[in-house]
Amino acid sequence: MIFLRAFIFVREDTNGILATVQTIRDVLASHTVTVADIRTIPAHGAWPEGPGLPTMAQTGDFAISVGGDGTLLATVSAVRAKLPILGVNLGRLGFLTDLSPLAVETELSAILAGQYRSETRLLIQGGLDSAPARWRMALNDIVLEKADGGRMIDIETWIDGRFVCIHRADGVIVATPTGSTAYALSCGGPILHPELEALLILPISPHNLSERPLVIASSSEIELRVPDRAAERCQVNWDGQESLRLNAGQSLRISRAEQRVQLVHPIDYDPIAKLRDKLRWGGQDS
User: Fold this and answer.
1) Do 141 and 182 form a contact (C-beta atoms < 8 A)?
2) Does 250 map to a domain?
């Protein structure tokens, strides 16, 4: 693919953001790539309401996310997963963002010259009603959790219309393979290879210590139900970017989305090597 026009998304108040963006613009200009727009994502909270991009994306358009993994997740939401996305890492771990700000000039130049790897990642969608057209998409996870510091909640889990169990916990995470290294990892979930066609269900701080994460087929449909008396104490989060409070009688339905997000990586990208580096497997110091 030839990249012709770039949309740049940045997180405000990120250290080093101005110098990095200027370097990116200089590299793009040297490869005759037009900067169509630069959008600023709020430091806290979700992407503002309204369209992230023009309705019709053109051939050769792509997005550059400058920040951490949260910035890239907000970029996915902004472009509605319709454009390839390249991540420049100004955050901490950076599981999703590849380019180093110190090497962005050489790495971005190589990508624009056609030396890159591209992969598609599974997305999930979910909502509080039965109309999928109004559901929101997520790259990492959709989380049903208590919205206050009160006691645990009972969450009925159903898969493909079949009852599984009642989780007595602080919430339930439904994650993609991409999201298995995010919130799910901190809750004790397994790491799934990003190419797997699977979904991960796991409770947050369950009361029953015998409860374990459950990996299911990505084609499965999930429903999470909360008793009416507890529903108003709960909220749903999509990738940590958007949230909604529940009302009595509402349940959360989640399924695989038809769309997939395309991520652009340097030519030497290796997901296992990235895990080894970021999680410091084998006692690595860096």
Assistant:
1) yes
2) yes
The CATH number covering residue 205 comes to: 2.60.200.30
Would you say how long the chain is, in residues? 286
- Whether residues 152 and 107 fall in one domain: no
Residue pLDDT tens, the chain, 286 long = 899 999 999 987 777 789 999 999 999 999 999 999 998 887 665 555 545 555 557 889 999 999 989 999 999 988 888 899 999 998 777 889 999 989 999 999 999 999 999 999 999 999 997 777 779 999 999 999 998 877 899 999 999 999 999 999 999 999 999 999 999 999 999 999 999 999 999 999 999 888 899 999 999 999 999 988 888 889 999 999 888 999 888 899 999 999 999 999 999 999 999 899 888 887 655 4
Q: Is residue 253 part of a domain?
A: yes
Whether 95 is covered by a domain: the verdict is yes
Q: In Å, how far are 33, 38, 202, 208 from 62, measured between CA atoms?
A: 10, 12, 34, 46
CA distance 28 to 109: 8
- Specify the number of domains making up the chain: 2
Are 105 and 141 part of one and the same domain? Answer: no
Q: Are residues 109 and 133 in the same domain?
A: no
- 98 and 131 in a single domain? The answer is no
Enclosing domain of residue 185: 123-258
Active centre residues (catalytic):
69
